[in-house]
Here is the input.
Amino acid sequence: MSPPPVPNSAGAPGSKNLVFYGPSGREGGTTLLLARVAAEFSRRGFPVRIVDFADGRLAAHLSQRGLPFVHTLPDEAGNRFEADELVVLILLHAKLLLRGLRPHPQTRFFFWSTHPQDGFKLLPGANLVRREDDRTRHIGGRLMHPRYWRRVRAFLEEGARRSGVVYMDSQNSMASQRVFSLDEPRTILPVATEDAEAMAPPVPGPLRRVTWVGRLEHFKTESVLHAMRTLEALGLETGDPVRFDVIGHGAARQLLEAEAARLQHVKVIFHGTRPSADIETHLRHHADLLVGHGMSLLEGARLGLPSLTVDGFLIAVPTERVLARWLHDEPDGEVGRIIEAEAEQTGQPLRALLKTWWAPEARAGLGAAARRHWERTHRVGEIANRALELFEANTFTWARIEATGFSRLDASGRVIERVKQVVSTLRRRWADRG
Here is the structure.
């Protein structure tokens, strides 16, 4: 493992102060990502400012660890950024630059894409494009916003050129490339989780204990269904007792509960949303395998728990044809994909991989491989080292952003944003009356 870099004489990268902008009241994956990286830099002695709500999760994460930082609210004062600050935020939140943020022309920005559609969603009314494929998004975006589409493209290109826009994995990068016809090479900065002591390998018992952690909605729904159905088939085949713990909540919970009620050879327990500390306790003491995708999969790998990547699906695929991969076999930075066509799948049949894990003697090796992969690719210290190099190279100033035209919506964008404001106002008034 690389030693942590030492702050320069001014205390921060390139004599700059770090600002992590992420107002949030919930402990979601992107919030935790920013919090973990901010905590790592604070731990190393860098000046860190957090822009968050008074009871926000980003600020709470650092406070709970006793780390020094400056906390400002997302109000007029908190949204002002100075020339010596570098602002780190999720790419999707670049939209906030149009809504009251007040940077100095020399303030630098660092945008981190954590979802394949972060770039596309910078276009006003992106949700009006209903089909879930990048070609349709490319055509729809250009038709809706012929001028602003070019401005977003220039923003992403200039950001990549100046170490100001990075992507968590190749799928995120390729999605923006296809939607905006990007030419500039794109930088990958994998997501990170905090250090944790590896758990002792559990003593194998007759009960097969499998856990899912993540939201229960949209493309994640099919992943949970495929896992449940495959565990049901293996329970029937082997006669072994199986328990599937589902941690998370979302619009698809009732649908999944109805499916679980029909199963006879796997006991499914829905826990709802749990604090991160409770999730770690569950994984350490009540799980032998973690299945899923995204940042939640890393929570098991860092503990030395076998971790199996089951992609998200935007299409229906028969469970027997679903492919999966061990996390430790993923390319560096990848934590699962969102599948739009069955042919996009890679890996081995989900049932075959679960059958490999079914043998108790295989589990210690799978867990050790997951831990090694996490240490090399997703440990927060390693990601902070890579981020620091990018921060030092960053020249993506507010003046450069304005030169791309990104801060100026086109006519159709202004109309869409105005309609959204009116609808939001009406909803608040209706709620107040109720």
